Amino acid sequence: MSNDLNKKELQDKMNNIMSQLMTTDEAAEMWELSSGHIKNLCNKGDVIASKVSNTWLLLRDQPNPKNK
């Protein structure tokens, strides 16, 4: 029983973390910029992002780079 609870708690933590992140496609839609432009911003370090495998993950609540 406690192992199942641990698994659920860990899954809840993972879901919470993932809800704070977005892909370049989601950022492009939210910020009304092209996905390619978002990837360039990620590569230059102009937005808060980490690359996992071949996918950029960005913090969802950061300011729109158009407004900088």
Describe this structure in words.
Helix content is 53%, strand content 18%. With 68 residues, the protein is an alpha+beta fold. The protein has a domain at 22-68. Helix 2 crosses helix 3. The model has no long low-confidence stretch (mean pLDDT 94).
Properties at a glance:
68 residues; Helix-turn-helix domain-containing protein; three-stranded antiparallel sheet; elongated; 53% helix
User: Using DSSP, what is the number of strands?
Assistant: 3
The largest sheet has its strands arranged as 1-3-2
Q: In what range is the share of β-strand residues?
A: 15-25%
Our count of helices gives: 3
**Low-confidence residue ranges:** none
Rg over CA atoms: 15 Å
Q: Major sheet: size, sense and barrel closure?
A: 3 strands, antiparallel
SS-derived structural category? alpha+beta
What fraction, in percent, of the residue positions are helical? Answer: 40-55%
Order of helices and strands: HEHHEE
How far the N terminus sits from the C terminus, by CA atoms, comes to 50 Å
Instruction: Give the overall pLDDT as a whole number.
Output: 94
Q: Quick summary of this structure?
A:
This protein has 68 residues and is an alpha+beta fold.
Could you outline the blueprint of secondary structure elements for this entry?
Layout: H1 2-19, E1 21-23, H2 24-31, H3 35-44, E2 49-52, E3 55-59
Antiparallel strand pairs: 1-3, 2-3
Helix pairs in contact: 2-3
